[in-house]
Amino acid sequence: MLEKTITIGDKRVKFRSSATIPRLYRAKFKRDIFKDLSRLESSYKGNSDDGSSFEIEDLEIFENVAYIMAYHADHSIPATIEEWLDEFEMFSIYEVLPEILELWGMNLQTEIESKKNFIAVAGK
Fold first, then answer.
1. Do 56 and 43 contact (CB within 8 A), yes or no?
2. Cβ–Cβ under 8 Å, residues 60 and 81
3. How far is 119 from 50, CA to CA, in rounded Å?
4. What's the rounded mean pLDDT across residues 6-31?
């Protein structure tokens, strides 16, 4: 389990990534986080700094992923994504998205290393 605190506007928000995230995301949004993050990362690599060329669906995926990771870290945040987003002033997707993608990537790397170690110990 990995955690990171990101400053959004004037608020410090804790995010957590773990093996539980795909299940939480699927239960809450009925979507596959692996497909969604792959799409989001592709969109991010080809866009301008103001986020204006992101599609609406990309922005919704970003909000959903950010919310699930924040909720996983702190269950005291609002129970709906709309209430949670209302806590913030407008902020640039480019300030937060790279941090979330990095946290997710670190989590995936940790899981890969764990599987390698398990295979080595199991002697397969």
1. no
2. no
3. 45
4. 93
